[in-house]
Design a protein that fits this description.
Layout: H1 2-22, H2 55-122, H3 126-148, H4 152-180, H5 184-191, H6 194-280, E1 285-289, E2 295-298, H7 301-306, H8 310-314, H9 326-340, E3 345-353, E4 359-370, E5 376-385, H10 387-409, E6 413-417, E7 423-426, H11 428-434, H12 438-441, H13 456-469, E8 471-480, E9 486-497, E10 503-512, H14 514-529, E11 533-538, E12 543-546, H15 548-554, H16 558-563, H17 572-584, E13 592-600, E14 606-616, E15 621-628, H18 630-691, H19 700-739, E16 745-747, H20 749-759, H21 761-766, E17 769-773, E18 779-781, H22 783-799, E19 807-816, E20 819-826, H23 857-867, E21 871-876, E22 882-889
Helix pairs in contact: 1-2, 2-3, 2-4, 2-5, 2-6, 3-4, 4-5, 4-6, 18-19, 19-23, 20-22, 22-23
């Protein structure tokens, strides 16, 4: 073996030498890029993957294959020729042996026959001895023939011959027995009997048949082997040129390969440039790592994915640990160790820490890299950002969980039927509704088994509808609870089909309306027993249904009321307004509450009814309830009369108050006059005294009175009279507001506020305040009174500004619910919430010791706003300014 191996190595070395001579211009394969890892130009990767076969080895293998093919062809021909020659000799030997045995069998058979006949004829014992000697030889010859020709046909022929031989031997042995008994004639007759002759004929024919068959079969085999030998020679003659052609073809292929190799080298260089372009612009982060775990190349995508530059990554001493999220490090360490052992990895997910600290989800796949000698030189990894995908997966998972939770824990029943109508899933609410466990229902029962028998035919029709139309809505069924009681439900269902239109399942929701049914029955009972008049009517003016209270209240029978339009029962003065409310409100879906009209009773009298009506526009009907308010109307009339009387009394009281206020002014005028005279006389006395020489006997007390008491009293009288005048004037003004005739019209608030701010320009400058008036919407009101409202509000805002900061007042507005809303906002001292209602009370003052006023400003404002059917309110906190809002009807 060693000797043969050495020869083979020498042969392959010789082939390599020939190959090198043929491709003398061939360039040496470039070293793997890791030999030049210090270069930073990222020129691309070398071919990677499993063991690479170099082009030179391919050519050598081609020559080896051609050589082996030649050896196999020639060797096969030589072996086959030797085998055929050997087999031919064996056939010839076997053929001659069989011929010899055939002749021997024929001879021995004749010897046995002749010995038996001679013994019977002569009676001599020598013939029996001869017979006994030849009989074993015949048996042996027959067995040898069977061994040499085990074919089925031969076995059958030999068996027939052997059977005949046995019978012949038996008859011949019988003949010998007769001869020994000196019955020679009987022995002779036996040997010449018909049976003996028959067996003799069978034996002879069998021997002849065997001999002929052996001769023919061996002759055919011999002929076939001769033909094979001839064919082998012819094939050998043809194969030699073929071998020569193969070697010529191998040389031509080698020549072609040399040219192809040069083109391949050029293509490889172009591929390297293409790889560099692709890798540098790849969206995924591509990285190659050597067997020590150090990165030796990466593409620019690393900075987009990790935030690290190529230089920073290549300088990372503990790569990849800083990039891996702490909880994933142990798992990824195992994965990267497997990569360094030459194992592939596919779509391994982990969390990556960017340079800026942001954590993202990444997915890595890698494969090992081998050099030309099949040595492991690292692995190449492709890493991509899957944060969006993970977020989407999380959202899908959460959505699935929400839907699963909704299905399972919804307050109404949900179920899914298979195409065979068997329930394949059902939620807890429906299970609780029917009283069964999940195991008792799912995969075992159909909907038809859960409903009352009377509705099963209806279910068949609905099942057809859901298959043909895709959905059914608001179907009422009666389920049978496990304990036997009935449950009223509403079923809504839809179907789901595959792309071929085959039913996958149906989805249904079940709403328990048992309580609603009970409520409907209760409502029906109330409808028929309540004292209120309840009806259902259409928009055309006909009652569709009424309760018994109509008969009791109006005196008409139900038939009479349903037969005619209800307008015929309404007071003529109320017909038009009734039609109007139907056309303008009820027919448009607007609910009407407290509508009043009069209905004629059967006795001819009229009764006042108060209606509350709710329309169902899509059904063209309205549901209404009414009650008799005739007594209330009569009471209202009485109340109206009393109110009129009270109003007159109030007017009288106002007149009295007005007169009293007017009369109080006269004494105040006198007080002011006398006070003025006292002051004047005091000035004269003091002047006279100051111009004379002091008199020693002037009493000291007089001096004090003149210089202190009288002046103080006079000041007090004057101040009190002013205060009383102010209060009485304000009170009089307040009373006049209740009787003043209002001239309601559209008010241009922008013009009005310009006038108000212009009139108060001095006060605004005095307060050193900034007033900002924004565009305002118009309103309805008495211009004089509304002007007074905003004058008082602006005065109030200026009065209560905070001295510690520049005063700012802003007036703006908006429209809301058919009203114009105005706001006077200031940054003054503010008002505590507990005083928000008190400031509108008469004579109430905020900080009276610090601020002047009579406490009527906001009271008058509120009185004016109330008379305009408006509203005033305040929003304020102490120290944070105030907002006073006024709401007036839109113009």
């Amino acid at each position: 073996m060693k000797k043969n191996g050495g020869k083979a190595n020498k042969f392959f070395a010789k082939l390599r030498q020939i190959y090198r001579r043929l491709i003398a211009t061939e360039t040496k394969p470039e070293k793997y890029f890791t030999d030049n890892a210090h270069l930073s130009n990222n020129k691309g990767d070398q071919p990677t993957g499993s063991k690479a076969i170099t082009p030179s080895r391919l050519v050598i293998k081609g020559f080896v294959l051609a050589f082996l093919f030649t050896i196999i062809i020639l060797g096969s021909l030589a072996w086959y020729t030797w085998r055929s020659n050997r087999h031919l000799k064996a056939l010839e030997t076997k053929h001659f042996k069989l011929l010899e045995l055939s002749g021997q069998i024929i001879y021995l058979d004749e010897v046995l026959t002749m010995s038996a006949q001679m013994a019977a004829h002569s009676g001599e014992s020598k013939w029996e001895k001869r017979y006994r000697k030849s009989e074993p030889q015949l048996d042996k010859a027959i067995k040898e023939v069977i061994e040499l020709s085990p074919e089925k046909f031969m076995r059958e022929a030999i068996s027939r011959t052997d059977a005949a031989n046995i019978k012949l031997v038996a008859m011949e042995n019988r003949a010998f027995d007769l001869i020994r008994q000196e019955k020679d004639k009987e022995a002779m007759d036996l040997l010449h009997s018909r049976e003996y002759q028959k067996q003799k004929q069978i034996y002879s024919e069998g021997i002849t048949e065997i001999a002929n068959e052996i001769g023919n079969r061996e002759k055919n085999r011999l002929t076939k082997e001769q033909q094979i030998a001839f064919t082998t020679i012819i094939f050998l003659i043809i194969a030699m040129p073929l071998v020569a052609f193969i070697w010529l073809a191998a040389l031509l292929i080698l020549r072609r390969y040399i040219a192809e190799r040069k083109r391949t080298e050029f293509t490889l260089r172009m591929s390297e440039q293409c790889f560099s372009a692709i890798a540098d612009h790849s969206y995924f982060w591509e990285i190659w790592v050597n067997p020590t775990g150090r990165p030796v190349w990466t593409n620019p995508a690393v900075q987009r994915l990790t935030g690290y530059s190529i230089k920073e990554l290549m300088a990372m001493s503990d790569f990849p640990e800083p990039l891996i999220y702490e909880q994933d490090r142990q798992r990824m360490d195992k994965a990267f160790n497997l990569a360094l052992e030459g194992n592939m990895g596919n779509e391994v997910q982990f969390r990556l820490i960017r340079k800026d600290g942001v954590i993202i989800w990444a997915e890595a796949s890698w494969k090992p890299i081998y050099d030309k000698e099949n040595a492991f030189i690292g692995y190449r990894a492709s890493i991509r950002d899957i944060t969006d995908r993970k977020r989407a997966e999380q959202e899908v998972m959460e959505t699935q969980e929400r839907f699963s939770d909704f299905f399972k824990n919804a307050p109404i029943g949900f179920h899914i039927f298979g195409p065979d109508q068997i329930i394949v899933d059902i939620n807890d609410a429906e299970l609780e509704m029917i009283g069964y466990s999940r195991d008792e229902i799912v995969g075992k029962k159909t909907w038809a088994e859960l409903i009352i028998p009377e509705e099963r035919q209806q279910f068949k029709e609905h099942w057809y509808n859901i298959i043909s139309k895709g959905q059914v809505k608001n179907l009422e069924y009666t389920l049978v609870h496990k304990d036997g009681h009935y449950i009223n439900i509403i079923l809504n269902a839809s179907s789901r089909f595959d792309k071929n239109g085959n039913l996958i399942n149906t989805r249904g929701s079940v709403l328990n309306i048992t309580e609603r049914k009970r409520s409907e029955q209760e409502i029906e009972r109330i409808f028929n027993t309540t004292g209120y008049m309840i009806c259902v009517a259409n928009m055309e003016g006909y009652f569709k249904r009424i309760n018994s209270s109509f008969e009791q209240t109006l005196g008409y029978s139900t038939k009479e009321l349903l037969k005619k339009p209800f307008f015929e029962f309404i007071h003529p003065d109320d017909v038009e307004k009734t039609k109007a409310v139907i056309a303008e409100k009820l027919s448009r879906g607007v609910q009407v509450i407290g509508f009043e009209n009069r209905y004629r009773c059967k006795d001819g009298s009229y009764k006042w009814l108060s209606w509350t009506s709710r329309p169902i526009v899509e059904e063209g009907v309205m549901y209404a309830i009414a009650y008799d308010i005739t007594a209330r109307k009569e009471a209202e009339q009485a109340t109206y009369k009393l109110n009129k009387e009270l109003e007159a009394k109030n007017k009288e009281l106002e007149s009295i108050l007005y007169a009293a206020s007017h009369d109080l002014k006269s004494p105040l005028v006198n007080i002011q006059g006398f006070g003025y005279e006292l002051s004047k006389n005091y000035d004269l006395i003091r002047s006279a005294l100051s111009s004379r020489t002091k008199v020693n006997n002037i009493d000291k007390a007089v001096n004090i009175a003149l210089n202190e008491d009288i002046p103080n009293a006079l000041d007090f009288i004057s101040a009190s009279s002013v205060k009383m005048d102010s209060l009485l004037s304000g009170l009089l003004d307040y009373c006049r507001l209740g009787t003043a005739v209002m001239n309601i019209r559209n008010i241009d608030m922008n013009t009005m506020m310009t006038d108000v701010s212009g009139n108060m320009e001095y006060q605004i400058k005095e307060a050193n305040a900034e007033v900002d008036i924004e565009p305002l919407l118009p309103c309805l009101g008495d211009p004089a009174q509304i002007s007074r409202v905003f004058t008082n509000l602006l005065t109030n805002a200026l009065k209560f500004l905070d001295d510690s900061r520049p005063g700012k007042i802003r007036i703006y507005g908006k429209s809301q619910n058919s009203h114009s809303i105005y706001c006077v906002e200031d940054n003054g001292i503010g008002i505590a919430p507990e005083h928000h209602e008190e400031i509108f009370e008469i004579f109430y003052q905020l900080e009276p010791e610090k601020r002047t006023g009579d406490g009527l400003g906001l009271t008058i404002v509120k009185r004016i706003i109330d008379r305009h059917n408006g509203r005033i309110w305040i929003e304020s906190e102490k120290g944070k300014g105030s907002k006073i809002f006024v709401s007036l009807p839109n113009a």
